[in-house]
Structure formats: structure tokens, C-alpha cells
Specification:
The protein is of the alpha+beta class. Helices cover 72% and strands 7% of the residues. A hairpin with a 2-residue loop joins strand 1 and strand 2. Helix 2 packs parallel to helix 8. Keywords: Membrane, Transmembrane, Transmembrane helix.
């Protein structure tokens, strides 16, 4: 299974980097956080913990996406492929949910900085938690739609396409005894779920770009002296967070087989 081994190796490399970056940032926050940055540091800590959970879920899933005669299908190279359905599908759905949450967490950091730096709003940690909760709601709705529309059934949970099995380098025993983790049905709900997921991704990037540009313009025009030093310290922590999010690129480097 050369394809699976190479794919798993790439995932482990990204996961190792992501875990190291997150634990390193946690250590920096706990050791060097200044009093005036405690709220921001709490936000970074919850971001790190969520990202660590997301990385672990992706490692145990290791999804490979493929098209089985036009039906979207997911095969797991990770340990969860030993599980029957619905347990495997539940873990796959949780993995997809955590990927969305980790990306959303980055946008909440930008929103927090936008309101505190540009709008001069005194945000508390409870306000950030409310913001996170508000952004999780549409992701949770996506989770429900995906669970309903993409769950394998006893009739289609086994991979019967021998050509795809050959591309995945699966032997006959694996095909006969293990099931796929996801089957996207070709109905209106599945199409709506796909479009809804794409819309959430676009909105997330729009938030990051808008807040990032607004912060840069404000800092360039108005921030001097001590305020600039504080922003630089926040930027250092933000840089490590964004560096840790490179593992999300690793989680985005899914194996696609057509």
C-alpha cells in the first residue's frame, strides 16, 4: 500500500509540526503572558486546545476522497477504518466538524483584534466565548446536514468498485471486511450541504481578509509608542498561531482519487 504509506507519512509530518507549534505556544503563553494581555492569551489557549483536538482527529481519520461512479466516497487510511458504521462515520463527521472549528477559531482572533484595535471596544473573555458560540452554530448546522446526507447505508457501505480499490491499493480482504467512512448521496440535500459548506469557507476568508486589512490600515495611521509595542507582542503570538495553522493546510492536503 505505497499510496497509503506516503499519504500517512505526509499527515504525520504535518501533525507533528502542528502539535509542536501549539504546545510551544501554550508554553509561551503560560510563561510570558503580560497582565494586560491575559484576555487575549486565554483566547489563544482555547484556540490551541481546539487545534490539538482537530489534529488528533485528522490523524486517526486520514481521509481519502474519491468518486465512485459519480458518488462522493471517503476511505479512511487511519485506525478508524477498522470500525464498522455508524461509528466510523460519526468519527469522520467529528473530524470534519473540528476542521471547520479550527479554521473558525482563526477568524475569531482577527475579529477580536479588529474590535479591540480598530473599534476600541473593551472585549472580555466571555464576549469572545459568545462570539465563538455564535460562529459554531452555522458549523453545527452543517454537521447535521452532512450527517443526514452523507451517511453510508448497509447497501452501499462496502467498496465494490474494483478499479477504485486498485487505485487505493486495497487487497480483497480489506474490501470484503472493511467499510467506507462516507457516501455522499446525489440528492438536493447533499447538493445544498456542499454549497453551504463552500459558502461558510468563503465567509471565513472574507472575515480574515477584511479584519486583517482594517487592522493594518489603523496601525499604520494611528498606533505609536507603547501601543505599537503591545501590538507587536500580539503579532508575535498571532504569527505562531498562524504558523501552527499550517497543519490545517496539511489537513487540507486530502488524498483525492478520481
Amino acid at each position: 500500500m505505497l499510496i497509503g504509506e506516503i499519504y500517512s507519512t505526509i499527515i504525520y509530518c504535518f501533525a507533528t509540526f502542528g502539535l509542536f507549534s501549539n504546545f510551544f505556544l501554550i508554553w509561551l503563553i503560560l510563561r510570558y503572558t503580560m497582565k494586560e494581555m491575559q484576555v487575549y492569551s486565554k483566547i489563544l489557549l482555547q484556540t490551541c486546545f481546539v487545534d490539538i483536538v482537530g489534529i488528533c482527529m485528522f490523524v486517526v481519520s486520514q481521509p481519502a476522497y474519491l468518486s465512485d461512479n459519480g458518488v462522493g466516497t471517503m476511505w479512511s487510511y487511519g485506525p478508524i477504518h477498522f470500525l464498522p458504521n455508524p461509528w466510523q462515520f460519526i468519527l469522520v463527521s467529528i473530524n470534519n466538524f473540528m476542521m471547520r472549528v479550527t479554521s473558525m477559531n482563526v477568524s475569531t482572533l482577527f475579529i477580536y483584534r479588529y474590535f479591540t484595535v480598530v473599534r476600541k471596544v473593551d472585549l472580555k473573555f466571555k464576549h469572545q466565548l459568545l462570539l465563538i458560540f455564535g460562529l459554531i452554530i452555522p458549523i453545527f448546522i452543517l454537521f447535521i446536514f452532512s450527517y443526514v446526507s452523507n451517511g453510508p447505508t448497509p447497501e452501499n457501505e462496502y467498496l465494490t468498485n474494483l478499479e477504485l480499490a486498485r487505485k487505493l491499493e486495497l487487497d480483497n480482504y480489506t474490501i470484503e471486511h472493511y467499510v467506507v467512512g462516507l457516501r455522499a448521496r446525489t440528492n438536493d440535500l447533499s447538493i445544498f450541504t456542499s454549497n453551504y459548506a463552500s459558502a461558510l469557507t468563503i465567509i471565513n476568508y472574507i472575515i480574515i481578509i477584511f479584519c486583517g486589512i482594517s487592522i493594518q490600515i489603523h496601525v499604520y495611521r494611528y498606533c505609536k509608542g507603547v501601543e505599537m509595542t503591545k501590538l507587536r507582542n500580539m503579532n508575535k503570538q498571532m504569527s505562531i498561531v498562524l504558523g501552527a495553522q499550517v497543519n490545517n493546510c496539511g489537513k487540507g492536503v486530502h488524498l483525492f482519487i478520481i
